[in-house]
Amino acid sequence: MVIYNLARCGGFGKGLLTALDKSSGEEIWRLELPNYSWSSPVDVYTKDGDGYLILCDSSGRMYLIDGLTGWVLDNIDLGANVEGSPAVFENMAVVGTRGQKIFGIIIR
């Protein structure tokens, strides 16, 4: 599976996250987002091997997404545009916003 993030797809302010089969190129799932994202999603895994994506967008939302289904499991408002990808270490995602704030989010 290959994940692509497309900014300003489906409208000027909108975004699209899609998963493609790396052999056939067929779409596995798609997630239409209300706001675009300039950053790449970050993949994180549980000890059992379950995969999740963390994606931040231009409105300041951080999403936790199921990697197999594309379902949004949770999201939080960081208050300002996020242009970079989060850095992840163990169960902590760290990201900065255009509002000059740095957040450390515990992943559960």
UniProtKB/TrEMBL annotation:
InterPro entries: PQQ_rpt_dom, Quinoprotein_ADH-like_sf, WD40/YVTN_repeat-like_dom_sf. It holds the Pfam family PQQ_2. Residues 14-102 form the Pyrrolo-quinoline quinone repeat domain. This is Pyrrolo-quinoline quinone repeat domain-containing protein. The lineage of its organism: unclassified sequences, metagenomes, ecological metagenomes.
